[in-house]
Prior knowledge:
By secondary structure, this protein is mostly helical. The protein is built from five helices and no strands.
Amino acid sequence: xxxxxxxxxxxxxxxxxxxxxxxxxxxxxxxxxxxxxxxxxxxxxxxxxxxxxxxxxxxxxxxxxxxxxxxxxxxxxxxxxxxxxxxxxxxxxxxxxxxxxxxxxxxxxxxx
Length: 112
């Protein structure tokens, strides 16, 4: 198993155990590939739920640019809901898992 497949398995486990979600592994694989090399870097592979600049990056670069949502689509509420679902006290919120949950939350599976 290559490194990316190991990470996808780890992300699927997080979805099952921490988010109580049965993952669509095909979609999770596509979202993970879409994250590019950031999944291999310790810092960029996670999302800080308390850093406003980090959350702005998620909103602007992922929700607006990648998913094509508009700024008035209640993006902040969606991010908050996903972070709550993942568990705010959970220290390691993997970017691919957060993005997967956001894709599901906003019903944008068709982008992938």
